[in-house]
Amino acid sequence: MDWRPVMREVFMTVIRKNHPDFNPMSLNDFELLTLAGPGYKGLTVGIPAWLQKEWALAAPKEQDRVWVLQEATRLCNARMDVIGIKPQPGDPNAKVRKVTNSEYSIRLWPGPVPHWCLDFVHAQTLEPKNEPFDFELWAVPLADPVLNTAPWLPLDTISRRLRTMEYGFGIKDEDVKEGEAKFALMDGQTCVLKRPGERDIRFTVPNRSPAQIVDDTEVMNF
Q: How many of the other CB atoms lie within 10 Å of CB of 36?
């Protein structure tokens, strides 16, 4: 299975995020990838006129538009490695699990192998939420490094707290827009969710390409 998203879906997501009052469904592929870029900073009402100007720059002659649109469609149909773009509601690749005794759920979705992303969503509405202030996500050491089927994971000897991708970019928690925070995980990684007054929750990220381990060591049991 190719876990990479179709870029048309990524462009749609970016536009909906940057221009929530604009419906991108009416755009052709050139307009879609153009508006998904960083070029337009104006109001929603000005988008159609701006796109017309971009069309004129990209294809000064009418016959040029056919080639430009073909290239745009090729890019929109391509699958590329993308990490950090949150899934749309109903995405079949996103996995959601309820956090016991909480109004939150954990949502996990795949990126390019071996990467995954995780965030917290409201259990009923599935609306993304930033990490609840009393939740802590920890990575735990491998149970048996010798039989490790995920050699890309760091060989930690102690548990370590995981921080959001935004934190890694130097953004303070209070400056992260609500619902934008997310964690970067990897295939086969085991994590523990810690909450005050509740039992820890342990889970392992699915491993899409486990390494084949050949262990011919004689095992002695006592």
A: 24
